[in-house]
Amino acid sequence: MYSLLLVDDEKLELETLRDYVDWNELGIGTIYTALNGKEAYSKVMEYQPDIMITDIHMPVMNGVELVKKLYEEQVTTKIIFLTGYDDFEFIKVAFSVEAIDYILKPFTIEVINSAIGKVIQVLDKEQVLNQSVKVLEKKLLQSVISCEEEVRNPALEQFKKLKKDQPELLQYGLVQAVGNTESIDTESLENKFAEIAYAVKEEGRITFFILYFVNFLDSAKRIEKYYETAEIPALFLYSAQKHKIEDLYLEYEKFITCNNLLFYEDTYAIKEVSRLLNPDTQENLPVEPQNTILHKEYYKKLKDILQKPRADSNLERILELSKEYFKEIKVNRQERNFVMEEAAFLLTHIYDTYVEDNIALKEGLPLRGQIINSIYQVINEEELESIFFNYLDYILEYQGRNSRDYKDKNEYIVQCVKNYIITNYANIITIESIAEEIGLSPNYVRNIFKEKTGITLTEWITDYRLEEACNLLKDDKLKIKQISFMVGYENISYFCSVFAKKYGLSPNEYRNRYIH
């Protein structure tokens, strides 16, 4: 769907044009209006509409002056002129400023449909061309950051040729999101954040090429906020300085080196690459496995227990030793792959000892291969520990070590989350506050809730609040602002926006249509 700006100094004509046509059927999703050229200029610069239909004769700034000024700013909005003069001179003026078409007043729906159809054909062709070029550029950039010189150099030269008219776009900053990439649509991110020139997806990470003139930390924070809002766990790296395109592969190699240095950082942490690699700031980085001894003591005890004949009391001891084991790992900062190998060994042996021969228990737990896969896909120690202990907790629960009535521990967790939301929906709710209330990690709560309900926590909270809002709208004595506060929205404009997005109506319209 494209966006449209309508400009006319006659308010009645402007409103008629806005309401007269079924714009949605023509492929127009968003419509802005302006009463003169000056106002139109401001709205074009702010909203960047795809199409503008503007009257030629207007006070303050006429249509031709408006378009010339916009083209000076290199605005790409497509122009259709609206005029009451069927005069060759006006037509010549219109096309001298590269208007695609003009409409004579009084207009008909057929004429408008035809003019909009021409513009959309142009926009569609440009979009296809731009997408094709962008796909090529992204493929070239993947080669540009390659460690293989024979791959990198030809791609570098070809990319430079594509950008010969835009030499300023031969330098970028880098931001990298480390984590599962399956649910990320890179094209959506490129469209959402103007500073992202390209987003290149690889297994386990997405590298964002950021336009050179922005603050790269600010950009990393914006991307992180997107991930957190979408409840997609990740860790983030950024470069503090811009880099010429021929030097990007060197910076990219630093990013790859730093991927393994993020293992003990909190989920959604943002780290600057050069600082991570600076020897003066490396006191908290992972150490070589042979440099620590204490954690091996707990690891050996765990192995010894798992190799003995099974006894129910052993599981309690395994839980106790596991807590000490992970405590020592965090203190000594063991290297990531080393820790995952040990965790995979321990959990698979726990599976073989307690789960393999128990059909009922196997139904509620991942299989042996799934355990290993989940361990090697974690982004940090926090997530690994969560997987490990939730696995043990499930087995303990099955054996009747707690008083819960739920056979599926995760269903119990989901119900606890829902109860908390139902009790606190009028207040500020965060994943951290929920996790703290039920004594689990935020990542685990987030993932289990989505797995069991099929929607994110944020979506469930929003749905519940809006359902309550619908009930409150039945009371005519309550104002919309009061209802907004009562269901947890301090900003009434945001409440109305969220409500309209879900129901297609404003709260007032909903009240009038369904309640009165």
From TrEMBL:
HTH araC/xylS-type domain location? 415-513
Q: Which GO terms describe its biological process?
A: phosphorelay signal transduction system
Instruction: Give the CDD domains listed for this entry.
Output: REC_YesN-like
For this record, the Gene Ontology CC terms, alphabetical, are: cytoplasm
Q: Which PROSITE patterns match?
A: HTH_ARAC_FAMILY_1 (PS00041), HTH_ARAC_FAMILY_2 (PS01124), RESPONSE_REGULATORY (PS50110)
Q: Which domain of life is it from?
A: Bacteria
Sites of the modification 4-aspartylphosphate?
55
Q: Where in the cell is it found?
A: Cytoplasm
InterPro entries given for it? Answer: CheY-like_superfamily, Homeodomain-like_sf, HptR, HTH_AraC, HTH_AraC-typ_CS, Sig_transdc_resp-reg_receiver, Tscrpt_reg_AraC-type_HTH
* Listed GO MF terms: DNA-binding transcription factor activity; sequence-specific DNA binding
Domain Response regulatory residue range list: 3-120
Q: Which UniProt keywords apply?
A: Cytoplasm, DNA-binding, Phosphoprotein, Transcription, Transcription regulation, Two-component regulatory system
Known function: May play the central regulatory role in sporulation. It may be an element of the effector pathway responsible for the activation of sporulation genes in response to nutritional stress. Spo0A may act in concert with spo0H (a sigma factor) to control the expression of some genes that are critical to the sporulation process.
PANTHER family xref list: HISTIDINE KINASE-RELATED, TRANSCRIPTIONAL REGULATORY PROTEIN HPTR
Q: What is this protein called?
A: Stage 0 sporulation protein A homolog
Species this protein is from = Anaerocolumna sedimenticola
